[in-house]
Amino acid sequence: MSSLALLAEIRQSSERRPYEVLKLAEPLLNSSNQLTSATDDAWLVYEQVFLSALDEGQIDLAKALLHILHSRFPSSQRVKRLYGLVNEAAGHPDESHKLYSEVVDKDPTNVLALKRIIALLKAEGKMALAANELVGYLDTHGNDFEAWLELSHIYLGLHMYRQAAFCLEEVILQQPANHYFHLCYAEINYSMGLLDIALKEYLRVIELSTDNVRGFYGVKLTADRIIELLSSSTRSGSGGGKSRRDAQMSFSLDNVPQMPVLEKLSQLATERLVATYSANKAASAPTKALEDWLKQ
């Protein structure tokens, strides 16, 4: 297979294999006639090699390729975005932001430029501004689940748990069979004290991924916590118990299983976790201590 065919294969797979791309492109760049004979593919190769040069830190090569692209497409917004990437790599984020903003002003639907603006804001630690930009982006591109996931991560960093949970709900709507997203959603709800939702989501995790250790840990911790709160509420009596219970619980008792079901869930999770750690015959002392805790 020729170098051009291999480069085309890498482009079509959307893989980032910069070292391999540069090796394949080296003889083509040294033989301008061979690359020119590729007609329209030549410009795709130039852009591909440009991006690989940036990945490998070869800024001078990237600038030389960008000069070729700009000579051929002097008014291209796509090329202008590449200038932004070079400025980022060279440590000039302000110039990059300006270029990306100009691209977006001319074409508000330019997804790549919009995402680079958000990435720059994140790199500068301006998380609140990055979140605002992402919200605006998602108003138009609501089916981009990766953007919803990124916004959830930003909200978590800002300790905005309800907003992060909402973003993950959007992710789960688009990717309902991915156990990892259910796990993240369960953990956020557990952190907020919404134990009824957390328990359901942890159970969904082990339904989708039957050997998921974090899922079983979540089931055990959540079930045990609900049992503890229910027991505390019962001991408090019917008099002053309601206000005390409300102070401890931010979820509805109507939405959680009965005590026997909770105990069975905790027991099942414990058995599965103990079995997982016991499978290692050379169990260390910390592992044995963990098993003892699980069996309590």
From TrEMBL:
Residue ranges annotated for the EMC2 TPR-like domain, each copy included: 63-189
A Gene Ontology term for the protein's cellular component = EMC complex
Q: Which UniProt keywords apply?
A: Endoplasmic reticulum, Membrane, Repeat, TPR repeat
Q: What is its main location?
A: endoplasmic reticulum
Pfam families according to UniProt: TPR_EMC2 (PF22890)
Q: Which InterPro entries match?
A: EMC2-like, TPR-like_helical_dom_sf, TPR_EMC2
Q: How does it sit in the membrane?
A: Peripheral membrane protein
Matching PANTHER family:
TETRATRICOPEPTIDE REPEAT PROTEIN (PTHR12760)
Instruction: Please explain the role this protein plays, according to its UniProt record.
Output: Part of the endoplasmic reticulum membrane protein complex (EMC) that enables the energy-independent insertion into endoplasmic reticulum membranes of newly synthesized membrane proteins.
Which family does the record assign? Answer: Belongs to the EMC2 family.
Q: How does it assemble?
A: Component of the ER membrane protein complex (EMC).
Name it: ER membrane protein complex subunit 2
> Which species is this record about?
Coemansia erecta
